[in-house]
């Protein structure tokens, strides 16, 4: 029979690592399961300037490396595995992976959410090098530059308005001839002199050698192809993609209470509707998805998990 852990954390992004740190430091037997790369989305970020206490020139990978070092120091176990199914019906929770089955007294789901991609040539290679999915994270890097915002919903238009605080000009690129955002948000965008619009337009390709240098647009009505090039003096510009996020919750469908968008519902204490199961970070229903809120979620979830385990008696099957 597999080991019974006090705490199993699914996901090793900032929320999962923070939970692992707090869980292990509280002397709970703690296991962190990650299917892919440790660190989540933050490892694609070249510079982290808005995390409290960040040192100059801090990068996503360097920040994650320090988190992992702390987690290891306090004795949390880590394993690479892809979770295929979970059984949260009993007092002892069962997590089934491709490699093994794991048992826990408490579980924290920290599987994150991934930005919906354009899936065009150059996007992956230039992510973090001109292509961004977070205005709050990266707006400052594009001060006095041209910025394109892809999308037409509330988030896209709100982020475009936010970007006008930094960029010289913001152009909203939308594949339709009208925005989907709420009318009140649209009115603010239309009234902002720094915002332009490219209607009936999509991006076909993003080009550049190590940094965004040009972008190829296609008019969805006429089929006309145009290419925008960076200003010669500046050499680059920004492309912010806001076409939605995809919460990594497919394994939990039918097993947990999800909102219509697929995010896990929790209270402020990170508790789900299932006793002993918590959620933290981008995977849960929340307003702000940032490293600082993810780590806070992870800390709260771990403290609540410790309290739950201390208050209950668990008998081995």
What pattern of helices and strands is seen along the backbone?
Answer: EHEHEEEEEEHEHEHEEEEEEEH
Biggest sheet architecture = 7 strands, mixed
Mean pLDDT over the residues: 92
> Poorly predicted ranges (pLDDT <50, ≥5 residues)?
none
Given helix and strand content, the structural type is alpha/beta
Could you tell me the radius of gyration in angstroms?
22 Å
The total count of helices amounts to 6
The CATH architecture of the largest domain comes to: 3-Layer(bba) Sandwich
Share in β-strands:
25-35%
State the fourth-level CATH superfamily of the largest domain.
FAD/NAD(P)-binding domain
Helix content: 10-25%
- Tally of structural domains: 2
Shape: elongated
CATH topology of the largest domain: FAD/NAD(P)-binding domain
CATH first level of the largest domain: which class?
Alpha Beta
Distance between the termini: 9 Å
Beta strands, count: 17
GO molecular function: thioredoxin-disulfide reductase (NADPH) activity
Family: Belongs to the class-II pyridine nucleotide-disulfide oxidoreductase family.
EC number: 1.8.1.9
Subunit structure: Homodimer.
For this entry, give a set of tags.
single chain; 317 residues; alpha/beta; FAD/NAD(P)-binding domain; 2 domains; seven-stranded mixed β-sheet; five-stranded parallel β-sheet; 17 strands; elongated; NADP; Pyr_nucl-diS_OxRdtase_2_AS; disulfide bond; Thioredoxin reductase
Description:
This protein has 317 residues and is of the alpha/beta class. 22% of the residues lie in helices and 26% in strands. The chain has 6 helices and 17 strands. Strands 1, 2, 3, 4, 5, 6 and 17 form a 7-stranded mixed beta sheet that branches. A hairpin with a 6-residue loop joins strand 12 and strand 13. Helix 1 runs parallel beside helix 2 and helix 1 runs parallel beside helix 6. The termini are close together. 41% of the residues are buried. The model has no long low-confidence stretch (mean pLDDT 92). It catalyses: [thioredoxin]-dithiol + NADP(+) = [thioredoxin]-disulfide + NADPH + H(+).
């Amino acid at each position: 029979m597999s080991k019974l852990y006090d705490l199993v954390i699914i996901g090793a992004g900032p929320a999962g690592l923070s939970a692992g740190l707090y869980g292990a430091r509280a002397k709970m037997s703690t296991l962190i399961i990650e299917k892919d790369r440790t660190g989540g989305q933050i490892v694609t970020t070249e510079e982290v300037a808005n995390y409290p206490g960040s040192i100059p020139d801090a990068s996503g990978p360097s920040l994650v490396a320090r988190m992992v070092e702390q987690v290891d120091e306090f004795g949390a176990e880590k394993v690479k595995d892809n979770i295929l199914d979970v059984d949260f019906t009993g007092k002892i929770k069962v997590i089934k992976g491709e490699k093994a089955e794991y048992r826990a007294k408490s579980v924290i789901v920290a599987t994150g959410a991934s930005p919906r991609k354009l899936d065009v040539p150059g996007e992956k290679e230039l992510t973090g090098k001109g292509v961004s999915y977070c205005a709050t994270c990266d707006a400052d890097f594009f001060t006095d530059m041209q910025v394109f915002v892809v999308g037409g919903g509330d988030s896209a238009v709100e982020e475009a308005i936010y970007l006008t605080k930094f960029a010289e000009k913001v152009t909203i690129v939308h594949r339709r001839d009208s925005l989907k955002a709420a009318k009140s948000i649209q009115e603010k965008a239309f009234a902002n002199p720094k915002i332009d619009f490219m209607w009936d337009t999509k991006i076909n390709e993003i080009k550049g050698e190590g940094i965004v240098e040009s972008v190829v647009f296609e008019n969805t009505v006429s089929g006309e192809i145009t290419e925008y090039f960076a200003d010669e003096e500046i050499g680059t510009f920004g492309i912010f993609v806001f076409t939605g996020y995809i919460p990594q919750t497919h394994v939990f469908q039918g097993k947990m209470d999800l909102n219509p968008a697929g995010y896990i519902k929790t209270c402020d204490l990170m508790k789900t509707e299932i006793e002993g199961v918590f959620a933290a970070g981008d995977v849960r229903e929340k307003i702000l998805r940032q490293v600082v809120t993810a780590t806070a979620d992870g800390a709260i979830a771990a403290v609540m998990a410790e309290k739950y385990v201390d208050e209950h008696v668990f008998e081995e099957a």
